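Appendix C reproduces, verbatim, an entry submitted by the partner laboratory led by Prof. M.T., so that reviewers can inspect both the input and the predicted structure.
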Amino acid sequence: MRAVIQRVSSGRVEVDGQVTGAIEHGLLVYLGVGAGDDATDVAWMADKIATLRIFPDDAGKMSRSVEDTGGGVLVVSQFTLFGDVRKGRRPSFDGAAPPEIAERLYESVCESLRARGLHVGTGRFRAMMDVVSVGDGPVTILADSRKGL
């Protein structure tokens, strides 16, 4: 499971002109599910997202998590994080999980974050989405459960 985690002042996702999810300050997470990912990857990723200390404390040091700050998490499915561009000019997405499995695990990450008391907004799985965000920092972190397990 891979994620691009961005600290944002605000973010929203629109599908066909309708807002499907929105947050004020917090994290915008582009989440990709890989072939072979399972509940272990879900638990690792949800914990990493919730506890990643990338928000400033009173001294300006990044030592607070989204849980600590009461921020929201906007999670957008992003199978293209598994795009392999080593050969040719068109990415191969063979490393991404099949949609049926990916959707279930994506939803599991969102539910795990909600179970921690976080406000979670989402896009719509397999839809064309417009993602609008205001970066804060900017702070952007890459996370990969296979490298963390």
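Residues 2-148 form a domain with the D-tyrosyl-trna(Tyr) Deacylase; Chain: A; fold (CATH 3.50.80.10). Additional entries are available on request from the coordinating office.
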